[in-house]
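U., I forgot to send this yesterday:
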Amino acid sequence: MKRTIVLMFFSMSMVAFANAQNLDKLVKAFQGNAKAEHHTITKEMMGMMAAQADSSSQKKVPGFIQRIEKMDVFTLEDYQGKDAGGIIKEMEGYKDGNGFETLISVNNDKDHVRIVAHKEGNAVSEVAIIVRDEKDVVLVRFVGNLNMDDLQSIVNEQKGKFQKQ
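Result:
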């Protein structure tokens, strides 16, 4: 009986661990693809961009930008089937788990958008926006101290962009 309980606990732990690794696997798939580009935007760079945007336009920069520690942007443009390598496989195989949950998933013809967040109570430490169409794949990953209101702002902004297309 003890052996069965230990095996069940071990199996459940491995499933949770595997689910949590999927977002990291997606990042590694981008990093391992020679045709993909990766840009990191630090908190300091975002502060400079926000100050520039505030001074040059009427549109206010969202407040959550100040709570982001860094943002990683991964892109693979004009891919041809095999060029995407494991990226598409990891995107399609991603499962929620270990604090990560899908906030929105939209499939519209050949466009796919998914917003995923890592939540602990009302605190959000990471948000990923995954976008794919027939030619391009993009992953934007925010790391910082966000809250549920910030997530709602991100989701609303992405919904608006997606619906305009």
